Amino acid sequence: MPDSQRGHRVTAVPGSQHVRVEIAGRVVADSHRPVVVHETGLPVRYYLPPQDVDLTLFEPTDTHTTCPFKGIASYWTYLGDGEATRKQDVVWAYEEPLASVAAIKGHLSFYDTVADITVEGPEPEAPQG
């Protein structure tokens, strides 16, 4: 394992928080069953079941990235109400994540630089150990 990956941890645990996601003032996701992901050096991320995301507002793109800790991510673009509100590659998912984070399979997460993500409920604690 390269030195840059030593001590790096990723955990995915079921959450009970209420997560609401808006893009350009429009609610695009609302869930009470997120998977909470803690990853060394990154903010907590909420992965939402696809049933809780309005997928009619998105289209898949050809973008894929590889994370050595989660696998290969696929991306979607927010269609908005036309080119002015269209947002490229704002949501991603791991269709075949690594076994250590299998709970995120098919769940979607949003870039908080584009989407307004509101979380109600207990602050998620990073797993110990």
Automatic annotation (TrEMBL):
<dbReference type="InterPro" id="IPR038694">
    <property type="entry name" value="DUF427_sf"/>
</dbReference>
<feature type="domain" description="DUF427">
    <location>
        <begin position="19"/>
        <end position="112"/>
    </location>
</feature>
<protein>
    <submittedName>
        <fullName>DUF427 domain-containing protein</fullName>
    </submittedName>
</protein>
<dbReference type="Pfam" id="PF04248">
    <property type="entry name" value="NTP_transf_9"/>
</dbReference>
<dbReference type="InterPro" id="IPR007361">
    <property type="entry name" value="DUF427"/>
</dbReference>
